[in-house]
Design a protein that fits this description.
The structure holds two protein chains of two kinds.
Chain A: E1 14-23, E2 27-30, H1 31-34, H2 42-49, E3 53-56, H3 63-78, E4 87-91, H4 102-110, E5 117-120, H5 126-140, E6 145-153, E7 171-181, E8 190-193, E9 201-203, H6 207-220, H7 225-229, E10 239-241, H8 243-265, E11 274-277, H9 282-292, E12 299-300, H10 304-307, H11 314-325, E13 333-340, E14 344-351
Parallel strand pairs in A: 4-5, 4-6, 11-12, 11-13
Antiparallel strand pairs in A: 1-7, 2-3, 6-7, 8-14, 9-10, 13-14
Helix pairs in contact in A: 3-4, 8-9
Chain B: H1 4-19, H2 40-54, H3 60-63, H4 69-80
Helix pairs in contact in B: 1-2, 1-4
The chains are: A alpha/beta, B mainly alpha.
């Protein structure tokens, strides 16, 4: 019997976000544009959601293009080469292939092959899930540098005539590189799920329904989605939500999660320089600020006004903008929290890059 | 346990805080949406604050049935009983 001792990867005590990047697509959809599709008004949308415009990608810009744009900036700002990446994580719910992953293709485009690459399906919490994983990978010694990208082309999965969620949504990508640090840079992640609310946000129907509906359409010459699904759904699945239930969960349950993330990090609200919540709705943001009793000195990210809700991309996009507009926030503490379809949530206090 | 009058007054206070609406505008026969112009998000904020104030639980699926102020007062009174 061998007496050899198994070697494990050396553990590193601290990690932090080294660089951040963003990609904002070129098309801006105004509330007046939205009102061509639903019976509403600019004033109504602003009042209910705080959204003025949302950016969306044109047909010739796909998910990977946006992810690549954000990733390249994050890698450059981290001061590393793509070839040094030890893992590539893409958080998205709008990669249009069940397999292979968006991350493997992105990894190759960036020149990071053969780094391990995988996608996370955690909707609007996807970026915080990615940061939780990157932090663990770096500190466990599994990877020296980890790229986390939150990217969505939600415009491929909306129905413009639908009123529960479509008009809120935008496209975009945000990315960070996480690496080793001499000082603490990522607080403990408070993350979780509540699958009992699986039906409150998500797609109208499954890919198997798409198959059945398509077969039916081929057979009958015209798709009769309503007959098959018992709804007025079209063949193509799109996003829906029960806004009222989601609002209650997002504000009051997520405020508790945010407080737990602060406690876990040993940070008081007045120690924070910034609050970067998922950009779901301005009124959720406002109500959370109230629930958390954040002092006025905390800069609150409100990127949603121009960007709309970009799901997994919203936190890094909002953080990127905060840093552009307030460069003095670099090196300061921010609380970030993502929450969405699953339902899933993730939060951590981080040092802004 | 609060009387219906106390529940009404408490609700009026919560509604005033959320929407700025004068407390005496909040009457039993008023519809939250049609008369008081309270949208679904404000309604949820009012519901959560009412839960806290009156120590009751108002489930999401129940909120949809509360169309008038009177419906809400009745629900809270029953839930407290």
């Amino acid at each position: 019997m061998s007496t050899a001792t198994l070697r494990q990867a050396p553990v590193h005590q601290h990690s932090r976000i080294l660089g951040i990047g963003a990609y904002r697509p070129s098309v801006y959809v105004t509330n007046d544009d939205v009102c061509q599709w639903i019976d509403s008004s600019d004033e109504w949308i602003r009042q209910r959601t705080g959204i003025v415009t949302r950016h969306r990608a044109p047909a010739d810009v796909d998910l990977i293009d946006m992810a690549e744009g954000a990733a390249q900036e994050a890698i450059a700002k981290a001061g590393i080469e793509a070839s040094q990446l030890g893992a590539v994580i893409v958080s998205t719910v709008t990669h249009p292939y069940a397999t292979p992953s968006a991350a493997a293709l992105l990894c190759d485009r960036l020149g990071a092959t053969p780094a391990p690459a995988y996608d996370i399906s955690a909707a609007c919490a996807g970026y915080c899930y990615g940061v939780a994983q990157a932090d663990a990978l770096v500190r466990s010694g599994a990877a020296e540098y980890v790229l986390v990208v939150g990217v969505e082309k939600l415009s491929d999965f909306i129905d413009n005539s639908e009123r529960s969620i479509s008009f809120l949504l935008g496209d975009g990508a945000g990315a960070v590189v996480v690496g080793r640090s001499e000082t603490p840079g990522i607080g403990p992640s408070v993350w979780g799920s509540d699958g009992s609310k699986w039906n409150t946000i998500g797609m109208t129907h499954s890919l198997l329904d798409v198959r059945d509906l398509s077969e039916e359409a081929e057979r009958d010459g015209a798709g009769n989605a309503a007959a098959v699904l018992g709804t007025e759904a079209k063949i193509w699945p799109t996003l829906r939500q029960d806004g009222q239930s989601v609002f209650r969960w997002a504000v009051w349950e997520m405020a508790k999660v945010a407080k737990r993330a602060l406690d876990a990090a040993g940070i008081e609200p007045e120690d924070l320089a910034a609050f970067v919540p998922h950009q779901a709705n301005m009124r959720i943001i406002d109500e959370m600020v109230k629930q958390l009793k954040l002092p006025e000195s905390v800069v609150v990210a409100r990127d949603i006004a121009d960007a709309g809700n970009t799901s997994a991309a919203s936190i890094p996009l909002a953080a990127h903008r905060l840093l552009q507009e307030n460069p003095e926030l670099s090196g300061k503490l921010a609380l970030q929290i993502g929450f969405g379809a699953g339902l899933v949530f993730g939060a951590q206090v981080i040092t802004l890059p | 346990m609060a009387s219906n009058e106390e529940i009404l007054a408490g609700l009026a206070e919560i509604i005033n805080e959320e929407t700025g609406l004068a407390p005496d505008a909040v009457q039993l026969d008023k519809s939250f949406t049609d008369d008081l112009d309270i949208d679904s998000i404000s309604m949820m904020t009012i519901v959560v604050n009412a839960e806290e104030k009156f120590g009751v639980r108002i489930p999401d699926e129940e909120v949809k049935n509360l169309s008038t102020v009177g419906d809400a007062v009745d629900f809270i009174a029953k839930a407290q009983a």
